[in-house]
């Protein structure tokens, strides 16, 4: 029999509007002595069934909704359906689905799978007509895999999963099996090492979950193709799942707007924006990161694409200190990218993070030449788009600099946003033009 979780009177409004989180303060009666991750039936104070959710006794988010349909069980078939639906959505919205070396297949709550992230990395794209990277014809797809199922590429590919909730942990095997079946990719690596797992009472875990015969792990120098460029993916030791697929469309935009410009890429990590700018015809690209390993990988990415040729220079230093030094040297740039790591891991950190965001954007405006473009981002879910714009506006005022918003940026269609879950909009960006 499914355990019951009863809400306090009047505390079901968010749930009725489709929000998938249930906080401890909203609960009148909760399950006793139930293991973490077990499915519970959520009921209103009046006894009305509202949702099926995963139970997490150690988290302030006590339950995360799997489904608002309480008539169908949460079982292996449920996860198979959810994974298939997620892939079908991306296929419908992304005509170039089969041309992408890096894709987010599962995006947590926005795909109805709280705490489940999966990125798919393919070192080679499906072969058709004898040409690597060409999309398969309908006949080839039909002959190679069931209708609607992605065709596994001939080269090395990996599914990288990150499980951050108690429910995802409990259903780990079912989730992995559904992913392998849906994609035909046998290699699965786990990167469940984010701090969020600690809030759920879970220990970090990384390593190979499944692999084809003879495969022990991702190859050294493993790389994918993005926007016609080769980029290394450090699945084992890199940030998050090893690569930021969410910035794919924004890297392409930087490439298109870099011709003839002096470019500064701050928090460059493995140099995706730097490679795009060099390929786009930048006259000079200066890249900053505090990690020597990241700088090394970024340099390798430039070399992979036969770029640079004296147009690239690298600064291994704290970004804030490096920007102040560049300001003291009276350097100026025509296009600046500010893409810091998550500065606000939770709402409690938002105000402190706001000061850091303002500081870096203030320095960015001061280094930006008149008429130049500033690409500035926040990947903190606790910082709303409205708050981020307010922070950047304050930085411009203090610089002082007159600027206009040219464009608002986010991730591509493989990072869908659930309308009732605004917290899912973690990546937000602005392109600003400084007055000449």
From TrEMBL:
One of its GO terms (cellular component) is cytoplasm. Its EC number is 2.1.1.-. Residues 3-88 form the PUA domain. GO terms for molecular function: methyltransferase activity; RNA binding. SUPFAM superfamilies: PUA domain-like, S-adenosyl-L-methionine-dependent methyltransferases. It comes from the Bacteria. Pfam families: Methyltrans_SAM, PUA_3. Signal peptide: none annotated. Residues 128-150 are annotated as: Disordered. Keywords: Cytoplasm, Methyltransferase, RNA-binding, rRNA processing, S-adenosyl-L-methionine, Transferase. Gene3D superfamilies: PUA domain, RNA methyltransferase domain (HRMD) like, Vaccinia Virus protein VP39. The keyword Transport does not apply. CDD domains: AdoMet_MTases, PUA_RlmI, RlmI_M_like. Residues 139-148 have a biased composition (Low complexity). Its main location: cytoplasm. It is found in: Cytoplasm. One of its GO terms (biological process) is methylation. Belongs to the methyltransferase superfamily. RlmI family. PANTHER family: RIBOSOMAL RNA LARGE SUBUNIT METHYLTRANSFERASE, S-ADENOSYLMETHIONINE-DEPENDENT METHYLTRANSFERASE DOMAIN-CONTAINING PROTEIN. This is Class I SAM-dependent rRNA methyltransferase.
């Amino acid at each position: 029999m499914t355990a019951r979780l009863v809400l306090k009177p009047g505390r079901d409004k968010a749930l009725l509007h489709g929000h998938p989180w249930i906080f401890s303060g909203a609960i009148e009666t909760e399950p006793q002595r139930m293991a973490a991750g077990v499915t519970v039936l959520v009921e209103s104070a009046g006894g009305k069934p509202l949702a099926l959710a995963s139970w997490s006794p150690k988290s302030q988010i006590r339950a995360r909704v799997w489904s608002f349909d309480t008539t169908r069980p949460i079982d292996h078939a449920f996860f198979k359906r959810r994974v298939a639906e997620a892939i079908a959505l991306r296929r419908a919205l992304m005509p170039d689905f089969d041309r992408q070396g890096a894709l987010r297949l599962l995006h947590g709550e926005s795909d109805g799978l709280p705490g489940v992230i999966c990125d798919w990395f393919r070192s080679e794209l499906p072969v058709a007509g004898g040409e690597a990277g060409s999309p398969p014809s309908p006949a080839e797809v039909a002959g190679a895999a069931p209708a609607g199922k992605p065709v596994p590429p001939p080269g090395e590919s990996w599914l990288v999963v990150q499980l951050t909730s108690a429910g995802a942990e409990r259903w780990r095997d079912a989730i992995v099996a559904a992913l392998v079946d849906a994609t035909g990719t046998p290699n699965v690596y786990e990167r469940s090492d984010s701090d969020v797992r600690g809030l759920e009472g879970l220990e970090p875990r990384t390593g190979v979950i499944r692999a084809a015969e003879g495969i022990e792990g991702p190859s050294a120098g493993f790389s994918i193709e993005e926007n016609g460029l080769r980029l290394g993916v450090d699945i084992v030791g890199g940030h998050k799942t090893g690569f930021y697929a969410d910035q794919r469309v924004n890297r392409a935009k930087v490439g298109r707007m870099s011709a003839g410009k002096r470019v500064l890429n701050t928090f460059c990590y493995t140099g995706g924006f730097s490679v795009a700018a060099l390929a786009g015809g930048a006259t000079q690209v200066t890249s900053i990161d505090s990690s020597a390993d990241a700088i090394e990988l970024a340099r390798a990415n430039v070399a992979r694409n036969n770029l640079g040729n004296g147009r690239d220079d690298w600064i291994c230093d704290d970004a804030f200190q490096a920007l102040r030094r560049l300001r003291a040297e009276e350097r100026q740039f025509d296009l600046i990218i500010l893409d810091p790591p998550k500065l606000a891991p939770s709402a409690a950190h938002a105000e402190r993070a706001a000061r850091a965001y303002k500081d870096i954007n203030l320095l960015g405006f001061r280094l930006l030449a008149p008429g130049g473009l500033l690409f500035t981002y926040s990947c903190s879910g606790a910082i709303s788009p409205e708050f981020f714009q307010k922070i950047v506006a304050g930085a411009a005022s203090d610089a002082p600099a007159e600027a206009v918003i040219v464009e608002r940026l986010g991730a591509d269609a493989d990072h869908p946003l659930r309308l009732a879950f605004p917290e899912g909009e973690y990546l937000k960006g602005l392109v600003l033009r400084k007055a000449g």
